[in-house]
Amino acid sequence: MLPAFSTCCDELIERWKNSVGPDGSFEMDVWPEMQNLTRDVISRVAFGSSYQEGRLIFQLQDEQAERIVKALPTTVLPFSWYLPTENNKKMKQIAREVRTLVMSIIAKREKAIQNGETTKDDLLDLLLESNMREKEQKGDSDSIQGMTTDEVIEECKTFYFTGQETTSVLLTWTLIVLSMHPEWQEKARDEVLQHFGGKKPNFDSLSRLKIVTMIIYEVLRLYPPAVMLTRCTYKIIQLGNLTIPPGVLLRLPILFIHHDPEIWGPDATEFKPTRFAEGISTATNNGQLAFFPFGWGPRICIGQNYALLEAKMALSMILQHFKFELSENYQHAPYTIITLHPEYGAPVKFQTL
Ligand code: HEM
């Protein structure tokens, strides 16, 4: 993954350097920038050589997201997604187009694998190869033989969409918070320069960044990209002193738990990375598990190391090249729409170092 992260971050820094004015500064909304970055990265990691075709999927996804927002007022009605409205019809059409795009990428790749022409260094190759192997091993047995094409398509879509939105939100809030707290920005930059100087970050050193990790955890606590988890009971469940029957929808409000003063202390809403100085388990008042931006248990986020590494790489490279502060146009408005966005964007002023 690391070469893909590194290539995309290089391109970002180059693009930003080209925006610098005669006084060495420039201003931009970092939210779309971070979305572009994480989309580039997942396109390369997931689809490697088919990267350009993968990028097209995001254009369709943007249109889909706009339509979901437009439909939100009616979604409280049961079955509202099934009503034959113009918006719903268009969304189904987009879903079909995404499916066709993913299918064509998969078909090309399957052919390349059969001809022995693949490099096995992206997610799609790994997925298809493992699926083909499983099918061969199972042979004629009655058990399920690998994944169906539809299942492979859904896997690709899951990775593709979950792999960028959350990480771009994390990076955006990190740049906002470090603009609000220049003292932490300085500490993070000192650490990065100490480890890498002006050189490109490498895996070993990225894993050893302590201050940067504390900052990222504290941003994930205050601005968790996924604000809640949802579960449905399928049998009687005993939860503490509650007996819950089957078919109950449970919501775990990550955002509220991450801000609870009983768990985190009276400064729960303040940005204080030092609470993670000794890691996650000692960050709370009573050592209770209350930090779960990536979920917990068997369904814990499969991409958490990927996300943390990508965030550390991007942040390290930005800190190496620029100082930044919030623009006067910034309005602080965390807003929940699937993930936790800055409602009016994130305009930030940059100064080259
Ligand atoms: C800051 C970034 C990220 C955050 C905050 C995040 C958060 C989460 C959370 C809370 C869950 C659990 C959902 C549940 O239990 O209902 C989850 C699951 C998942 N995440 Fe992430 N995620 C992030 C990045 C990524 C990335 C980069 C990828 C892929 C490259 C990814 C792929 C997945 C997948 C496939 C699952 C489902 C795992 C399963 O059900 O077994 N995530 N994520």
TrEMBL record:
Q: What is this protein called?
A: Cytochrome P450
Q: Answer yes or no on keyword Protein biosynthesis.
A: no
Transmembrane portions of the chain = none
Source species, please?
Rhynchospora pubera
List the GO cellular component terms: membrane
Keywords assigned: Heme, Iron, Membrane, Metal-binding, Monooxygenase, Oxidoreductase, Transmembrane, Transmembrane helix
What the entry lists under PROSITE patterns is as follows: CYTOCHROME_P450
- A Pfam short name: p450
Localisation: Membrane
